[in-house]
Specification:
4 strands, extended, mainly alpha
Amino acid sequence: LGRLPGELARLCPELAMRVADLPAPAASDPRTEEYRLFEAVTSWLLQASRESGMVLVVDDLHWATRATLLLLVHLLRAASASDEARLVVVGTYRDTELDRRHPLTAVLADLRRVPGVQRVDLQGLNLAETIHLVTSVAGHELDPDGLRLAEAAFAETEGNPLFMGEVLRHFVETATVQLVDGRWQVNDPGQIEVPEGVRDVLGRRLGRLSETANRVLSVAWVIGRDFDLELLAQVSDADDNALLDALDEA
């Protein structure tokens, strides 16, 4: 359990019941207690990785607390300075959830100076990858109706994997897709609606925008997927500067 096993009980109190003679966490000021906890977690993970190697996956970092992010930085700095560590840390986040005040923004800047840290920008799926995903979910090769369904899902989601999963789930819930004798049977999808899960994500993002930006986007949505700036200005009754500011914000 590393050099400071007793401090791990702050994260996992049940540890005291599982490990005999585990020392109690040291009582001190909050900053010292936090530092000792960071050291304990780092020592434990590095020690465990030396034996057989370790891959640590931390998902949705945009929802992590500041303390969790600082612990991650502490761990990565220690791992990069160790010659014996066999640790790979994979952290994922949505850059659309960040702004300049988000704690992860500062952490990402700090991580640029840590050796061994790489940033990988993930793009959406293309049509061929979307068909492969739908085929994998179905568990069999797609017939012509299934291919058309995959193409429709790609057109609506533009290859966003999160939205793709929600759209496929929506197809099942609305009986657009039914399982018959172990194979997908596709009914007429008609108009593809925005699934509830996608609505929640988009609603949360739109909720961070100003009232003006939301109003401009509402007008643009009525015009269509592609719109002309001059037409948008005429319909929204907004002056050019306010319109451009709203679009920049969006």
